[in-house]
């Protein structure tokens, strides 16, 4: 096939996709109108499955396979960062220097740390009941740990952040999502189909597999973000320490 013919095939295919896209846009409900077919169906399905938060019902039930792809993107980014920023044989790591923190900053950051962590865990645990869920709560929980970096110094953060354990937990969160989906196959249902009792509406045990998938996402996101920040912070600390050593040698 010549390059000219390939370009014509690409142009025809692109034109076809553009026409279909425009036709689909014309059939969308008017903004602010009274007709909401997609929202109405999503709410009906969420209530039928005893999931009070419709967004979580969509994410972890009606389009759970898409959510698996989103989770896998973050997991792949973490793996890629770990591989690219790993310490090589010819690299050395210097311990970070202690940093002076203003007393007000130290005091308020230490107070905010447990509160922020509790909020993150609450958002994850109640994802099927109220706004939030594993993605949002995972980010909040990961941020809470790094308040110790602001309140004390980098060495204090390292003591509560064994990167190896967080890497394992990140992989475990990804695997847990896959295992819950695979468990549905054992019951004869499709992948990621709910196979548990729906429970009592508006309770923590409601929603079938939604709380399990939501918790798996929370673990993966929280640990993945911690690992990402750890790798980037390690590089920044090493570079800064190396610059200080170079300046000291130049001064002597």
UniProtKB/TrEMBL annotation:
Chief localisation class: membrane
One cellular component term from this protein's GO annotations in UniProt: plasma membrane
Keyword Acyltransferase: no
InterPro entries, per database record: CPA3_antiporter_subunitB, MnhB
Bilayer topology term: Multi-pass membrane protein
Similarity comment: family membership: Belongs to the CPA3 antiporters (TC 2.A.63) subunit B family.
Name of the protein this chain belongs to: Na+/H+ antiporter MnhB subunit-related protein domain-containing protein
Organism: Streptomyces glebosus
Lineage: Bacteria, Bacillati, Actinomycetota, Actinomycetes, Kitasatosporales
């Amino acid at each position: 096939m010549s390059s000219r013919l390939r370009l014509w095939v690409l142009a025809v295919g692109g034109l076809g996709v553009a026409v279909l896209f425009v036709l689909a846009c014309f059939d969308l409900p008017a903004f602010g109108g009274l007709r909401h077919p997609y929202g109405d169906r999503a709410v009906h399905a969420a209530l039928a499955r005893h999931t009070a938060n419709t967004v979580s019902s969509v994410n972890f039930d009606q389009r759970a396979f898409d959510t698996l792809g989103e989770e896998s993107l973050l997991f792949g980014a973490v793996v890629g960062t770990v591989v690219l920023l790993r310490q090589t044989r010819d690299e050395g790591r210097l311990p970070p220097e202690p940093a002076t923190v203003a007393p007000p900053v130290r005091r308020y950051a230490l107070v905010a740390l447990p509160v922020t962590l509790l909020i993150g865990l609450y958002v994850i645990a109640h994802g099927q009941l109220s706004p939030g869920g594993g993605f949002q709560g995972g980010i909040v929980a990961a941020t809470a740990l790094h308040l110790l970096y602001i309140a004390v110094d980098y060495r204090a953060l390292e003591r509560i952040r064994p990167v190896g354990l967080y890497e394992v937990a990140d992989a475990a969160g990804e695997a847990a999502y896959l295992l819950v989906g695979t468990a549905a196959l054992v019951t004869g249902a499709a992948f990621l189909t709910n196979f548990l009792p729906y429970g009592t509406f508006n309770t923590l045990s409601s929603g079938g597999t939604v709380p399990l998938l939501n918790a798996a996402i929370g673990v993966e996101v929280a640990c993945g973000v911690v690992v990402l920040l750890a790798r980037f912070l390690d590089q920044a600390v090493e570079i800064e320490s190396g610059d200080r050593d170079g300046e000291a040698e130049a001064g002597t």
